[in-house]
């Protein structure tokens, strides 16, 4: 930060607050989520944890502006959400979200290009962000030529270059193998610390949530899902998942989610033992 | 470390095993699936066809069914006096002009119809009406309106190209993944920017499919158009052969059309593979 010329490149995006007030979403007669109140502080890292189909992604889509709330209010940085916007970057689970006809560099450059940033300037920006996520060697390759982990790095760089106040991550590492996922989690941890943006991270992986979140929120099983448990994670970074506090938290969350899964299975008449 | 050492003979054994496996696999590749095998199969197919043709020609007069030899001689004859090359040139020029114009108009129209539902509703009645009317139905009108010159032929090729290309392009626009549109929106792309930077590139494979189908249809159309009103061209050549009782010239015209169509499609495929590979066009 001492060099003024670099200040434009510094990846700091001042985070903004996300606020959901009494939010419900229904598609026709089926209620997906209801009565959601959530406040994510500027710069906070919140993980939404829960089994598939509980409405986590629906909440993320709501904040992203992909779908409207049936009732209630959603705002980011004090402004009501009316549609998708650059202030809320989204890292999608599917790597198909990258434009397959553009190289990594061109994908990363996409945001600045849409804003009309001059060619030379945006090339400089793109180089910086490609370096930041460790894809320097692959900058001129097409997404189809990259591994799953590399593609997610490219997606992250493409979002961060816009300096979004809020980064929404929808199970970004769900499709990666366990080893790559660990590396990527460490990367996100590092990037979040460097950018100070607000992150809403959706996952069904308890370890991932403990590794990353300031706060972890579990949800009841849908339909008509609500928040169930909110846990403040007071473990210093980098976190050791084999240390007692993390293990204790893991057990707590495991039971929390397992009870929801059991409840769903019982409701569907699929559970063998009604434990 | 010691455990690793004791394990290493086992590892080596596994390695040799896989090696013998790949060696065992290679010779079992069926001969017919090799490059040579496939080429020979195609050659055999063509040879058999020629043989059947030859045997059939023994039973009929040349006016009814000329033999392959007679047809080949006629082809050499027509080539030597310049008729064949002139006909190919004339037909190809009309096809290329009409087909290119069809792409230049059909693709943007398809994009607009796909992206703006108002435009789609506005033009849909016409697309759905005219696409069932074959170009040959318009041959007479084309001559009345545009004269017997090049314009009427090019217009008919344009007509046959445009609907296929437009309909395919619309289908492409409608199948652009929601995910890409969402990604563009969160990255700050406006509606027009999304159209140009996401919709158009995503639709390229559909445009190519439309263009290739239209190329085939252009060949069908050119013959009808030239039969009715043309001095030169493959269609005209086929038609005038009748006046001379030269059935073998008809055969030359037909075979030339088939080969020319095949070559044109190959050229399009080659160009697409070279130029549009990154748009994931499967050809």
CATH architecture of chain A: 3-Layer(aba) Sandwich
Tally of distinct domains of chain A = 1
Q: How would you characterize the largest beta sheet of chain B? A: none
Note the overall shape of chain A: globular
Helicity of chain B, as a percent range: over 70%
Search tags:
heterodimer; A: 275 residues; alpha/beta; Rossmann fold; 6-stranded mixed β-sheet; 7 helices; globular; disordered N terminus; B: 283 residues; mainly alpha; MetI-like fold; 2 domains; 11 helices
Describe this entry's structure for a reader:
With 275 residues, chain A is of the alpha/beta class. Chain A has a single domain, classed as P-loop containing nucleotide triphosphate hydrolases (Rossmann fold), CATH 3.40.50. Helices cover 35% and strands 22% of the residues of chain A. Chain A contains 7 helices and 10 strands. In chain A, the strands form 2 sheets. Chain A has a 6-stranded mixed beta sheet with strand order 6-7-8-3-9-10, sandwiched between helices. A 4-stranded antiparallel beta sheet of chain A has the order 2-1-4-5, covered by helices on one side. Chain A is globular and about 60 Å long. Chain B has 283 residues and is mostly helical. Chain B has 2 domains: 2-51; 66-279, MetI-like fold (Orthogonal Bundle). Helix content of chain B is 81%, strand content 0%. Chain B has helices at residues 2-25, 35-59, 68-80, 83-115, 117-130, 139-146, 150-174, 178-186, 191-228, 234-244, 247-275. The longest helix of chain B is centred in the C-terminal third of the chain and has 38 residues, at 191-228. Chain B is flat. Chain A binds chain B through residues 64-66, 83-86, 88-90, 92, 94, 96-101, 110-111, 114-115, 142, 144, 158-159, 162, and chain B through 177, 179-180, 182-190, 193, 197-198, 201, 204, 278-280.
